[in-house]
Design brief:
By secondary structure, the protein is mainly alpha-helical. It has one domain. It is about 90% helix and about 0% strand. The protein contains one helix and no strands. It has one helix at about 1-30. The chain is rod-shaped and about 40 Å long.
Length: about 30
């Protein structure tokens, strides 16, 4: 169970990093 939670936490962090990059790209490109 702990391993699953750990994997989910890493996945959430990865998604947050991707979302931040996409958001920055949108702001830079004025979308």
């Amino acid at each position: 169970i702990e391993n699953k939670v750990d994997c989910q936490g890493k996945l959430v962090r990865l998604l947050q990093d991707i979302f931040e990059v996409v958001t920055e790209d949108m702001i830079i490109h004025g979308c």
